[in-house]
Amino acid sequence: MSMSISIKNIVPRAKVLLCRGSTNGRRHYLLLLIIVLMGWMIRIIHLDRESLWLDEVYSILFVADRSLGAIISDTFLVDFHPFGYYAFLKGWFRLLGDGAWATRFLSVIFGCVHIATTYWLARSLFRSRAIALTSALLASLAPVAVHYSQETRMYVMLMTLWPVCLGILWKSYRSRPSLGWGVIFILVGLLFLYTHDGAGVLALPLLGFWMIWGGPHDQPNRRGPPFIRS
């Protein structure tokens, strides 16, 4: 009798806790959505108020009259930046054209994705919704992030991929040996490297750490990349 009474009491309480958890989760992601939308509004306002400056004009002219193959080959000859951003910009031209507002809007999208990737990195590192939301809010409002999100250049794409590289590295570090994480890290790392000529300064130390680190504190004998560790 006492057992049946206790079960009858526990089940409703468990349902209440589950409902509260799902409600808090929905509120949490609603706040994240509000932060991203706020970042989008900040970036989109007066997007074409300023005229294109020299480097933006160069980006447009470099891409406009070249095929994708020519862009890839010519970046090694006439531009010290890799072709990653220019390839994205070439595809963007076919969607919205090559005007100031249209080309800068691609950077606005990267800027909003940067807010989300910053959130994901903070959530992965600290496992805290509050810290993750605060990080996303800072990324949304940071003047440097807003500035580069309104330029037809590759800097905001670099800022967007950097948290992804860090987050994948951390996820790989904390997980069991997995070929999947290794492949994802390599692919994102290559995209990161082919975005900006300075990406290697950030990526190579990450790659070195990924190759030689010891495992997590609870598995001190694990060494090497996660997809070849035993």
Word description of this protein:
- This protein has one domain (9-212).
- The relative contact order is 0.10.
- The protein is mainly alpha-helical and 230 residues long.
- 75% of the residues lie in helices and 0% in strands.
- It has helices spanning 2-44, 54-64, 68-78, 84-96, 100-126, 129-141, 143-148, 155-174, 179-193, 199-212.
In a few lines, what is going on in this structure?
The chain has 230 residues and is mostly helical. 75% of the residues lie in helices and 0% in strands.
Low-confidence stretches: 1-7, 14-19, 214-218, 220-230
Helix count from the secondary structure assignment: 10
Largest sheet: none
Q: What distance separates the N and C termini?
A: 52 Å
Q: Helix/strand-derived class?
A: mainly alpha
- Element order: H for helix, E for strand: HHHHHHHHHH
What oligomeric assembly is this protein in?
Answer: single chain
- What is the overall pLDDT average? 83
Query: What Rg is obtained from the alpha carbons, in whole angstroms?
Result: 22 Å
Query: How many strands in all?
Result: 0
- The number of domains is 1
Estimated helix fraction: over 70%
Proportion of β residues? under 5%
Key words describing this protein structure:
230 residues, mainly alpha, 75% helix, disordered C terminus
